[in-house]
Each structure stands twice: as C-alpha cells, then as structure tokens.
Specification:
Number of strands: 0
Shape: globular
Largest sheet: none
Strand content: under 5%
Number of helices: 6
Structural class: mainly alpha
Distance between the termini: 49 Å
Helix content: 40-55%
Order of helices and strands: HHHHHH
C-alpha cells in the first residue's frame, strides 16, 4: 500500500533486465504462485493419504501431462520442510480454511528429517 509507483516501476524494469517476466499483484497471502501451487501439493498429498495412488504414480501422471516435475519431486527440490512451512502459513493466513490444511505425511517427513534433496531423503532417496 505504501510502495511508491516509481519504486514498483524500477523493480519491474530490473526484473525484466534480468530476463524475468514480472507481474504485479496485490498484497495477499501467498500472492499468486503459492496460492495456486498449494492445491497442487495438498491435493496430491490427499491422493496418497487416501491410498488412491502412490506418490511415484502421481508424479509420473502429472509429468506425463506436461508438468516439468510432479508435486513430490518438486517438494523434494524445494525442501519438504520449506513446503510444509509455507502450507502451514497459508492455512493460518486463510483462517484455517480446510483447503489449505497441511498433510500429516509432510509433518511425518519433516519430523523424520526427510527434507528432500538437501538431506538426501524426502519422498525419494537421493543418497545413492
């Protein structure tokens, strides 16, 4: 609300100069990407929790439909702990709306120290 238009213009110009494609969005929890991406992760985790399909199958299917990475490979890349933290923050920011509820599976992975690539184990094993 207090950002001067000239500052926003300068940041946009810098991002473009760096080869990025900036967009302007109002200040909101998660802005655009994290708000939309939460459902990519949360629904995928629900499929696994409900034993509809194993996580590898969910990744394989979504990658076959054009996603560069399935949700579980992407969580491992970002960090399962980081992804869980963002999901938890979004859940709180949206007054505990169930559509943002964090998964028990993620909590268990975090508690076990399985944070993804950075620890060598997440949903996949990277220690080999």
């Amino acid at each position: 609300m207090a950002t001067a238009p000239a500052v926003a213009d300068a940041v946009q110009a810098l991002a473009e100069k760096l080869g990025k494609q900036p967009v302007r969005a109002a200040d909101a929890p998660g802005f655009i990407v994290n708000r939309v991406a939460r459902h990519f992760y949360v629904e995928s985790l629900k499929l696994v929790e409900e034993q509809v399909a194993p996580f590898e199958v969910v990744d394989e299917l979504l990658e076959a439909t054009g996603f560069r990475m399935g949700p579980f490979r992407l969580m491992d890349l970002i960090g399962v702990d980081t992804n869980f933290s963002v999901t938890s923050a979004m859940f709180e920011a949206f007054h505990y709306d169930p559509k943002f509820r964090p998964s028990r599976i993620q909590q268990q992975k975090v508690d076990a120290g399985h944070h993804g690539r950075k620890t060598g184990k997440g949903f996949y094993d990277y220690s080999r």
